[in-house]
Amino acid sequence: xARADLFDIKGEKIGEIDIKDxxxxxxxxxxxxxxxVKMQLANRRRGTATAKTRKQVAxxxxxxxxxxxxxxxxxxxxxxxxxxxxxxxFGPRQRDYSYTVPKKVRRGALKSALTTRYTQSSMKVVDxxxxxxxxxxxxxxxxxxxxxxxxxxxVDKKDETIEKSARNIPYVKILRTEGLNVYDIIRHEELVFTxxxxxxxxxxxxx
Length: 207
Prior knowledge:
This protein is α/β, with parallel strands linked by helices. It is 34% helix and 15% strand. Helix 5 links the parallel strand 4 and strand 5 (173-176).
């Protein structure tokens, strides 16, 4: 069974803990990580880009000028795509970019991402994070003690004190265990679990 150091918020090592090989020590499969990240980014796309067709453009339906005798090309509508302000041919339409991949793929990608952070020694476990009040300065001091630059913190439950203390610090994100995802794990340089959050993730991932 794999082992990880346990730290306190002062950055001091206070022990070691066992972590499950089935979650943090599996074969890394980059193609699964790529597939899930691609899905996550696609699901975030709004897909609201749109352009008006000639049917939707405001304008008169009157023929611009008589068919013959003017020496000009034949024109039937001011809303034609040939005119400035006319409709757009094959323009963007509103669409839904979202799709899903199998649960087995998502779980495999998450395990691969967690294993990558663990094997690269960019994952830390702290016994708990408790703040008496909202304080960006205090949270920054915790980061400095743990030698973190661009961390993703994973906590086991909602804590507005922690979330509001961290929100003004660049490149820092606080996630609850139920929101843990592949994209955020690989986007941040370090992964920090509270002990309770780590156990909850293990429980879910091996069930």
